Amino acid sequence: MKVVIVGGGKVGYYLSKAMVERGHDVRLIEKERAVCEHIANELDIIVICGDGTSIEMLEQAGTHDADCFIAVSGNDEDNLIACQLAKAKFNVKKTIARSNNPKNIEIMAKLGIDIPISSTGIITNLIEHEISVSGIKYIASIIEGQAELYEIQLKENSGCHNAKISSIDLPKTCSITAIIRKDKVIIPRGDTVLKGGDTVIVLSALRDPNKIEEYFE
Hints:
11 strands, about 220 residues, Alpha-Beta Plaits, 6-stranded parallel sheet, Rossmann fold, 7 helices, 5-stranded antiparallel sheet, alpha/beta
């Protein structure tokens, strides 16, 4: 896979290193000449010294036949513009942009970035879900945060023990998508009976894990 990366900071460097180690063809664009020389010597990859928002620099990096374009500079606006150019001018199918400000994630998605990523947002979500919510585990965000997957360990004394799923008064925004029982995965139906000790996978647009957990107490 051919990957073009904009930004040679710590994120860009280690991302490039990881991609090279997995056998991918990596091209990097970075403004600072000293950084370019360091990365080129360390990783033995093609490094373009220039502005990642310049069409000329994108051409030099071979963006026209890149499978993936990733912008991880320290400037959100530059990352957005670089990805937009890669998609509009070079028809790159997959663009990924780093957002230093979590508030820019939604804007980037609306402006055509395939995968906007905020390390700050990811860490914040993990802290909120793993620390403040004791009996329910956050798994993943779906469709840009419109819904979330949770894992709930059903207690032995749960009121849902021996209850059919159809009898549980779940809101329309929640759905049980899978049950794990003794290392076996069960695809639930309305007449599926829950057992204490089950691990229940819930898809929810409720975005309130404490509230979701209450339905399984």
